[in-house]
Structure to design on (230 residues):
């Protein structure tokens, strides 16, 4: 059973870079899936940040595209998110999730990490 | 970008009743790639429905999804106290993938 676990600093200074990692266990990051990041400000709804394919292709939300970079580390079976030039508006719970794909079919975000809270403050 | 509008904002029902949650898209959802998620306080979202009507693993048949194009519905029959949560729809057929603003379901 695939499980995901986010990790990274809980506090980032304004104008700094938010860096998070999602460790994948119980399965391989090289499987035919996309791996996603979603965030949720306190008391608000969900925002899709973007996704990365096992082959390294990426797909970012245009609203964040200029500040987002996603990458894979197959040797560690994990993927990462970097968000630059952060402001208080980037304060949120950040989730990683598996975007399940099988034989060309798309099945939604079927496995989620528990989420990690990132606060942008000096 | 496809905007998803969920209604109602809040739904308050009693155990045993049926809940009908709506999700309307500003444009046709490609491939009817529409998912529903349940989120309880302090927890990550949980996938309920994919592809508008496919039930995710472990989801009871009290929950069902329907619809196509721009209008989609999540129906929860025989409500139980554990169904109290916020429910989100998401379209994942056309990037950027977008979520609705959520419907809060309260069980009296």
């Amino acid at each position: 059973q695939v499980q995901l676990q986010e990790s990274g600093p809980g506090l980032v200074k304004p104008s700094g870079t938010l860096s998070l990692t999602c460790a994948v266990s119980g399965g391989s990051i090289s499987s035919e899936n996309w791996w996603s990041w979603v965030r949720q400000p306190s008391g608000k709804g969900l925002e899709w940040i973007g996704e990365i394919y096992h082959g390294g292709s990426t797909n970012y939300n245009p609203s964040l595209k200029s500040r987002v970079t996603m990458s894979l580390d197959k040797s560690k079976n994990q993927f990462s998110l970097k968000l630059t030039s952060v402001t208080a508006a980037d304060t949120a719970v950040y989730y990683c999730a598996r975007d399940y794909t099988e034989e060309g079919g798309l099945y939604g975000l079927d496995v989620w990490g528990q989420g990690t809270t990132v606060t942008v403050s000096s | 970008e496809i905007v998803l509008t969920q209604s109602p904002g809040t739904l308050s029902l009693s155990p045993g009743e049926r809940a009908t949650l709506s999700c309307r898209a500003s444009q046709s959802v490609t491939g009817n790639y529409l998912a529903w998620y349940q989120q309880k306080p302090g927890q990550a979202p949980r996938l309920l429905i994919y592809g508008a009507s496919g039930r995710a693993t472990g989801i009871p048949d009290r929950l069902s999804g329907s619809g196509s194009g721009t209008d989609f519905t999540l129906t929860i029959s025989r409500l139980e106290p554990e169904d109290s949560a916020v429910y989100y729809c998401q379209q994942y057929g056309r990037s950027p993938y977008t979520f609705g603003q959520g419907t809060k379901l309260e069980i009296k």
About this structure: Residues 3 and 11 of chain B are 21 Å apart (CA to CA).
